[in-house]
Structures are given as C-alpha cells and as structure tokens.
Amino acid sequence: MSYYHKVYDLVARIPRGKAASYGQLALMTGSPRASRAVGYALRACRDPELPCHRVLRADGSTTCAFGPGVQRAMLEAEGVAFTEDGRVDFSVSRWDGT
Asked: What parts of the sequence cross the membrane (predicted)?
C-alpha cells in the first residue's frame, strides 16, 4: 500500500463531528515527521467522498484550500467545536483514532 493510500484510509475513518491534524495522521501512519507528506497526499486526492476537510493544522486553524470560510462552514455543519479565536477546539473535537 502506498503512503498516500495509508493517509486516505485514515482520513476515511474520521467521523462526522471530529477532526485531526496533519501531524496526528503522520504519527498514525508510522512516520511522525511526515505531516507535510500528509498534506501532499490530501492535495492529490481526487475522491470527492473523502472527508479531507476534517484535517487541519496542528493549532486547529483551517486552510483556504476549500475557499475562504468553506472548511469552517463544513466542520461547523458537522458539529465540530471552535474556540473564540476561530480554531477547532481539539480538546473537544479531536479524533482519537478509533
């Protein structure tokens, strides 16, 4: 299995209402320093069903890859909690990998 497919398998398991960081997924693939490779994998993904919007930066901030405000709106629609400063509240919404 390729590294990208390992990432896709993990992302597919993130449930609604939960989120993960690039670094968390890298650690779960067995390559703890590969958070950038996780990002490359998600950027290359062509599967519209894969919930890539549930993957965030380590500090819980969203990216503009989906368009301004789109990722946040998608996450809020799923019940993901945000802090007052606009970051995902990982203390509430972090996926535990199960």
From this structure: none
